[in-house]
Every structure is written in structure tokens, then in C-alpha cells.
Amino acid sequence: MRRAGALASAAAASLLAPAAGAQAENACTGPAYDIARRFVGAWQEFSVTPEGERLEGRLDTTLEAGGCAIAQAFASPDGAFTFRSLG
Length: 87
Hints:
single chain; 87 residues; alpha+beta; 4-stranded antiparallel beta sheet; 2 helices; 4 strands; 36% helix; 39% strand; elongated; disordered N terminus
């Protein structure tokens, strides 16, 4: 009895797996995610002072996890300060 139940469970899981995979592929698409794509790229970050603009560092923004998360990596011009975030 246990073996038949395990086989039935395995068969059901294999039938459901393709549907779940297909859903996961399209989970992070659409207008809300298109907005995030605008920020993908490499950016120079400046601060504005009375003396003018000052380069603070470089910010690299990528999409990760199939386009579902934004990852950012910042580095100061001399490399003394860096951070990475995932959101």
C-alpha cells in the first residue's frame, strides 16, 4: 500500500512540475517589472555641492533570479567603499 501511494505521489508531482516550471518562467514579467528594467545598467553616481559635481562612485544594477530581483553593486572611485544589495 505504501509503495502504491508513493508511486501515485511521484506521478502526480511529475505531472504538475512542468506547469509549475512554466509559471515560474513568466512570474516576473509585465508592466510592473518593465519599470525595474529601466534602471539596469552601469551608472556614475555624483553628489552636487556648491563647488560643483563630485563623483561618488559607480553603481552597477542588474536583474537576478529570472528578472524577479534587482541587484546593485556600488564602489567608490578609489575602491575603499563597496556594497552589494539584492532586493
